[in-house]
Structure formats: C-alpha cells, structure tokens
Design a protein that fits this description.
Elements lengths: L2 H6 L4 H17 L4 H8 L8 H6 L7 H20 L6 H5 L12 H20 L1 H7 L7 H5 L1
Helix pairs in contact: 5-7, 7-8
Protein name: DUF2384 domain-containing protein
Organism: endosymbiont of Lamellibrachia luymesi
C-alpha cells in the first residue's frame, strides 16, 4: 500500500479493501465482537453487516474512521513491542482493568471515550506518542485526557 496515497486519502479500492481486512483481522485477534468493532470504528448499522467488510466492501472513506484506524494500528504496534514474546497478550490486555486508566479496561476507555479514548490508550502504551502530545513538557496521559 502506498503510504503517500494513504496520507492523502487517495487509496485505490484494492488498497482500501486490504486495509479494511487487515484492521478487522487485527480486531478479531484481540477477541472483539462485531458490536465492539463497530463502536471502536464509529460505524453505523447492525453488527451482522460487519461480514461485508471482511469480504467485498471497504470501510467508509471517512476522515474520522481513517483517524480511528490509524490509532488502532498504532495501539496494536505498541502492544506488539510492549509484549514481543507473547503475541496473545493484546487479547488479554485490552479487556483487563488498568490502574492507570482509572481501573477501567482499555477497551472500555476506547469505546466510551471515542477518539479521545483511543488517544488516551495510545498514550498509555506508547511513550513517544505521549511525549509528542504533551509538547515535551509532561508525559502523563492524565493531563492529555483532561
């Protein structure tokens, strides 16, 4: 997939289908149900319609959905680097209550908080992202999630 085209939102249909399948497979590997996937991606419709996205329909070409996909991919990358010897840890970590997230699971924070929740979880996992978001003054995600 061409990264420049992705940044400009000019992906071909094949690239969009590939991205959709990759993201949905990533979310399936986290053990998420269709309703949870729809909430994370801010998709309208019924959970049974998620099957379409795995076969022949790309995710909507919407800047909000694209931004959420970017956050989710970065969260997945951060989980992979945080737990390099245990690829299944993401499935467990995503549902486990976390003291740094006010005793809520990362999944709950992301679903209930929308885009801000995705950013909060990403900040918790990826210190470089938290550093960038803080303006290099403070790496605490609590200050970002306000």
């Amino acid at each position: 997939m061409n990264e420049t085209a992705q940044e400009n939102g000019n992906l071909s249909l094949d690239d969009r289908l590939e991205m959709t399948r990759g993201v949905l497979n990533m979310l399936k590997n986290w053990g998420l149900r269709a309703e949870e996937m729809m909430a994370l991606l801010d998709l309208e419709g019924k959970p049974r319609h998620m099957v379409r996205y795995l076969s022949d329909q790309p995710l909507p070409n919407n800047p909000g959905i694209t931004k959420r996909v970017e956050y989710l991919v970065r969260i997945n990358d951060a989980l992979r680097t945080t737990y390099p010897l245990n690829p299944d840890m993401g499935r467990r970590w995503i549902r486990q209550r976390n003291t740094k997230l006010h005793r809520r699971s990362p999944l709950a924070v992301m679903i209930e908080g929308g885009e801000r929740g995705l950013v909060n979880v990403l900040c918790h996992l990826d210190c470089t992202y938290a550093w960038d978001m803080s303006g290099s003054k403070n790496t605490s995600c609590r200050n970002i999630s306000g």
